[in-house]
Design a protein that fits this description.
globular, three-stranded mixed beta sheet, about 190 residues, 12 strands, Rossmann fold, alpha/beta
Length: about 190
């Protein structure tokens, strides 16, 4: 199968997501073209979409300024998969509890920015994730906390708190799966 994928490229771990998408598609035997999206008009052509970690206020401001915000919402409403990681989760949430972030409201969760601590409090941990046989080595960097869930499936928790959820075609994580060589989260988000 030939697929078109996009990584919202206004800020964050763009090349890492591109590489993970390419690995996940290749493992399935699919051809993929991955676009780094910085302007409107590209998302409608995408089968798969990733919104990376980075700085949520910057991502929110730029996707709204460029008109990409409505295209992402339309993508999700069409049932196409979106993987939103760390800051991407914050922007995708129904409530970021921060007036500087205009959320997309495509994941029925409330989040708290940087709730796991500052940069120096970053950590890595093995996570049991629903849909994966073996633990996933998760990288948490200034990670948001999902402090309230609505009608979503919780895929993983850490210390009793949700850190990965699925809401229809959207998989959202507090951690950065793109910072590992393990493409299973991308495969889970896009193909399962």
């Amino acid at each position: 199968m030939s697929l078109v994928a996009g990584v919202i490229g206004v800020q964050g771990n763009v090349s890492e997501h591109r590489d993970a998408i390419e690995r996940a598609c290749t493992a399935r035997g699919d051809d993929v073209v991955v676009h780094e999206i910085r302007t409107a008009g590209v998302v409608p052509d995408c089968d798969l979409l990733a919104m990376p970690g980075g700085e949520s206020t910057t991502i929110s401001r730029l996707i709204h300024r460029e008109g990409i915000d409505r295209e992402i919402i339309d993508h999700v409403e069409a049932g196409k998969p979106l993987l939103a990681t760390c800051a991407g989760l914050i922007v995708a949430a129904s409530d970021a509890q921060d007036d500087r972030v205009e959320t997309l409201n495509v994941v029925d969760v409330h989040v708290e920015r940087n709730a796991f601590g500052r940069q120096k409090d970053s950590f890595e941990a093995p996570l049991e994730i629903s849909g994966l046989e073996d633990p996933f080595h998760a990288v948490f960097i200034r990670a948001p906390l999902i402090d309230q869930v609505g009608d979503v499936e919780v895929l993983a928790t850490w210390d009793g708190r949700p850190v990965a959820v699925r809401d229809g075609p959207v998989v959202a994580t507090s951690f950065h799966p793109e910072l590992t060589d393990d493409d299973r989260i991308h495969a889970l988000a896009f193909f399962e």
